Amino acid sequence: MANSKLFLVILITFGVIVPSLVAHIAEFDGYWRRRAEESLENTHNLYHPEPEKVTAEVNKAVVQSLKEVSSNTTARRLLGSIRKNRPCEATNPIDKCWRCDPKWADNRKRLADCGIGFGKNATGGKHGEFYVVTDDSDDTMNPKIGTLRHAVTQKRPLWIIFQRDMVIRLVQELIMESDKTIDARGTRVYITGGAGLTLQFIRNVIIHGLRINNIGVGSGGLIRDSEEHFGLRTQSDGDGISIFGSQNIWIDHVSMKKCFDGIIDVIEGSTAITISNGHFTDHNEVMLFGAHDNSTIDEKMQITLAFNHFGKRLVQRMPRCRFGYVHIVNNDYTHWNMYAIGGSSHPTIISQGNRFVASNDAFTKEVTKREAVESVWKNWDWVSEDNLFVNGAYFVPSGDQDWSRKHPQISDGVKSGKGIEASILTKYSGALRCIVGKPC
Ligand SMILES: *[C@@H]1O[C@H](CO)[C@@H](O)[C@H](O)[C@H]1NC(C)=O
Ligand SMILES: *[C@@H]1O[C@H](CO)[C@@H](O)[C@H](O)[C@H]1NC(C)=O
Ligand SMILES: *[C@@H]1O[C@H](CO)[C@@H](O)[C@H](O)[C@H]1NC(C)=O
């Protein structure tokens, strides 16, 4: 009797400890186990079997908006001397969808219809009420009503906005529930000097307009992760945004720098994700997509990286990928100190219409880096189309370079926006300064 009980204890202890080491959950209780199982199901269900359809749709939208930009630019030139107020300029299809509407603040949920790429279906808190954050304080176990932590741990869908400009120092990682939009438009909201955001085993989140910097390691301890649950956590990594086993995520117009670990990490079965219009600076390991060469669930990872500006004092991992399918389109890479795009475990990388500006250092001209021997990586599909290479930058392609010709029925001959246009498409990257009542 006593023996079998002991055996049971040992069994449970093992079951508890193994996943927890990876997930930073010190007590992998029934609650987290259920969430992990649901997450795995979502990963499989949300995998898009024809990713070229998604890349072609993005490219089509970009080409269309570029046409409008150039006709508006001509119109503006003609009007320039007559009108003082320049018409609003939105240079990419996401921004075009909402930014020039002077009533954007009365119509905030419109943003949820503006996504593109693999994270397009993220609706965040569109079907919920507004929640106004009024209090910049943080309490990890008993968050006060009106704080960001109180908002993101609610079970129901919420569209979270801010009453005023705020500087929020998170005492521990901010563990979010599903179906949330964090919308900082019209206010300047800094998440700084503390821990970062954690999206773990959740679905359907939009994060827009946050300024996230100087993020450190959270010590761990008891943290509330839902209005109905809290638990013991180990140290957090010190990522700005950590996406772990989560799906339907859209991160738009964030300004991020100086995080202890990654700026944005996407790992362990996360998929259906778009990261767009971001401005990233001052960081070493920028984005990790897939954490381990043995996490084969990341075969299902599909990510769109569009209209981001990878800027000053960045070093590497923009992104570093394992497995998965990553569409890297119309980004502006102006700084890297080791490499820009790298990976292991045969990820598929479709790099289209980016601008890559190399530094003057002769040893960092290469955009790409692979952790494998050539006889292995030569079969990985790393496609480079319509990119602009400046100052000796070069991309080493591999695998099937007939990629776009192989999918003519899907891609319909659609070409991406060109690398030379990347600086126009990313012109307004980072958190915007929107004023209520005016086009943003
Ligand atoms: C071009 O101008 C029109 C009229 O002002 C506006 O509705 C449209 O959003 C603009 N397009 C872009 C891409 O800026
Ligand atoms: C979004 O959802 C629709 C309807 O379920 C689906 O057909 C489409 O493939 C999804 N889009 C992406 C990019 O996953
Ligand atoms: C996967 O690899 C990581 C790092 O190499 C290691 O810590 C972990 O134990 C491995 N997991 C499994 C299930 O093999």
UniProtKB/TrEMBL annotation:
What does the entry comment about cofactor binding? Answer: Binds 1 Ca(2+) ion. Required for its activity.
According to the entry, every stretch annotated as the Pectate lyase domain falls at 165-362
> Which class of enzymes does this protein belong to?
lyase
EC number, UniProt record: 4.2.2.2
The UniProt catalytic activity note for this protein reads: Eliminative cleavage of (1->4)-alpha-D-galacturonan to give oligosaccharides with 4-deoxy-alpha-D-galact-4-enuronosyl groups at their non-reducing ends
Q: Which UniProt keywords apply?
A: Calcium, Glycoprotein, Lyase, Metal-binding, Signal
User: What pathway does the annotation place this protein in?
Assistant: Glycan metabolism; pectin degradation; 2-dehydro-3-deoxy-D-gluconate from pectin: step 2/5
Q: Does the keyword Metal-binding apply?
A: yes
In the UniProt record, does the keyword Lipid biosynthesis occur?
Answer: no
Q: Give the UniProt family note.
A: Belongs to the polysaccharide lyase 1 family.
Question: GO molecular function, one example?
Answer: pectate lyase activity
Q: Which cofactor does it need?
A: Ca(2+)
Signal sequence span is: 1-23
Question: What is the superkingdom listed in this entry's lineage?
Answer: Eukaryota
UniProt-recorded name of the protein: Pectate lyase
Record-linked PANTHER family: PECTATE LYASE 18-RELATED (PTHR31683), PECTATE LYASE 6-RELATED (PTHR31683:SF181)
